[in-house]
Amino acid sequence: EVYFKNLSKQKQKEVMEKNGNNQKLRVCVATCNRADYSKLAPIMFGIKAEPQFFELDVVVLGSHLIDDYGNTYRMIEQDDFDIHTRLHTIVRGEDEAAMVESVGLALVKLPDVLNRLKPDIMIVHGDRFDALALATSAALMNIRILHIEGGEVSGTIDDSIRHAITKLAHYHVCCTRSAEQHLIAMCEDHDRILLAGCPSYDKLLSAKNKDYMSVIRMWLGEDVKTRDYIVALQHPVTTDIKHSIKMFELTLDALISFNKRTLVLFPNVDAGSKEMVRVMRKKGIEHHPNFRAVKHVPFDQFIQLVAHAGCMIGNSSCGVREVGAFGTPVINLGTRQTGRETGENVLHVRDADTQDKILHALQLQFGKQYPCSKIYGDGNAVPRILKFLKSIDLKEPLQKKFCFPPVKDNISQDIDHILETQSALAVDLGGTNLRVAIVSMKGEIVKKYTQLNPKTYEDRLELILKMCVEAASEAVNVNCRILGVGISTGGRVNPREGIVLHSTKLIQEWSSVDLRTPISDALHLPVWVDNDGNCAALAERKFGHGKGVENFVTLITGTGIGGGIVHQHELIHGSSFCAAELGHIVVSLDGPECLCGSQGCIEAYASGIALQREAKKLHDEDLLLVEGMSMKNEEVVSAAHLIQAAKLGNTKANSILRTAGTALGLGVVNILHTVNPSLVILSGVLASHYVNAVKDVIHRQALSSVKTVDVVVSNLADPALLGAASLVLDYTTRRIY
Questions:
Q1: Four-way CATH pick for 414-544: 3.30.450.20, 3.10.310.30, 3.40.50.720, 3.30.420.40
Q2: Whose CB has fewer CB within 10 Å in the chain, the N or C terminal residue?
Q3: pLDDT at residue 343 in the model
Q4: pLDDT tier at 558 (50, 70, 90 boundaries)?
Q5: Which residues are known to be catalytic?
Q6: Which residues contact 334 (CB under 8 A, 6 or more apart)?
Q7: Which class would CATH give 545-715?
């Protein structure tokens, strides 16, 4: 032990002599807000603990000194750090101009401080506009800069600021291997990059406060239990302030509806924060019995709150970084953290433009427990950073050099490959067959299983479970990771609950059936259920002609007639989940009887069943078969025989097909006059036989303002399975919805 102590002292002496006259390294740490202090504080404690090597000067500026944001400089004082300088640099206004003026004000005030302190190195953290002013001042005054958390990718203006600071900094401390590779790709000197991990993890992974319940009760009330509350932290997105305020409003509405105790932290000082606070007050959040609105929570206590929460929601980097250390479920809203590496605990809701989406995400995530993630650190960042600081040679030229060698090969798995292997189990419940398929993210059907659809509820559910288990097992062999199960079924479906309310006559014993619960319990996967017509529309939206189209309608022409309506990129379900029952649009008051009990529906004219009915009539009268056709005695007459007869010149068969096409065309005209889509997609086995007739009817019957609508035949081979898969691929964990 004595030997190693002496050896350590000798090494310390060598480093001091290297820097000349036993000179200590004078380090200036500048902190701007509560978030960056949580990362800088562990480093500051480490520096303070080694006075033989370092002199520490602390500069406080930014929102630390504003009462509306909690006067958080006090926690720095409580940590027993001497604050050398306080700089009031924030210009109030919380808009874009105020941010620019704040940077300018900091640039005016910082030179005097840096002249007095004369630090050897300045430590700057992150991607805030205050940090950009610090880095700019230090670089122009020939002060070395150590940048913490460079090389990461997120969203909004933060990316640009972070990378700008990277180009000004002389040394870099990054948190992940990916960030290190980004820095190298940005031509930074590899010898001046330290992969240390996030300093806050040093505190997170050693936090073992046994009395966490007192912290929870202090902030949320005496009656709150662990895993039964939510922490919400949402900031404005400076590149789209209007949308971020709307998203915050929808988030609060969803949290109110979700009806769980929620701790809401005030947003940061970025442009748009004032409007977000107005939204909170407009909705009465500060006085709502389920909410606790606070400006600041000390980091030690904040750790305990998120560690034992049922869920965290918002767009703070804390959610995608620090919270992963506890496996707490996180809902990341919007684009502010796009590009961040995340653990399995994070569900991304990129386009959080409806309350239902956010509410659905809460239902998916709340109360879950995920594996703890150490993507951003292993708890040993500070010792590495201190060692890195000690290795800095002040005699080296200050002028920064950039390296332009080929970028090192990234040994991580290619992202395209990852996306391709993320897959869904798709289930299609038809009148005749039950099909299950493994469908990849790109819409490729990797494996498909088909069985006859049983006639009873018990047999049908048993077969679904058996086929899904078999497919899930096979998914491992074909290198597919199953994200969830999507089910397409005939009938009226409540997709929110995963219940078939009642079915068509084609599927017996299929009313008031809860599909979600038994399948989810058996497979331990999330399950989505929707009507087959809606699934066809979703398939077109993700993989087909509807991709990128704001308003379109899909019509399925098969055994029956169904469809789905997409309006402003969203599927319409209706108040009682009966929207888009397009097959039951009445086109004649005295037409043939439909299976629904009405008369003159499109389905009574143009469905496969309707064509089969007419084919049987012709066959019974010996008017179906023409030259070139033959039928075996036991062969059942079908719609296919009618189509074949029409192609071979049977005028009566041709007339029936024309009438069917006209009925379908009249239905499409009614749709055009009701929802005014820009695109109509005909799907199913009969689509190619009807498309010209539909176009003719539109030309003759539709108003001039809708005649230009595009009518196309779907190019998807299996829209029902692809639509069921898209339920999963668009809505499941870590996917965009």
A1: 3.30.420.40
A2: N
A3: 85
A4: confident
A5: 532
A6: 155, 237, 243, 244, 247, 315, 349, 350, 352
A7: alpha beta
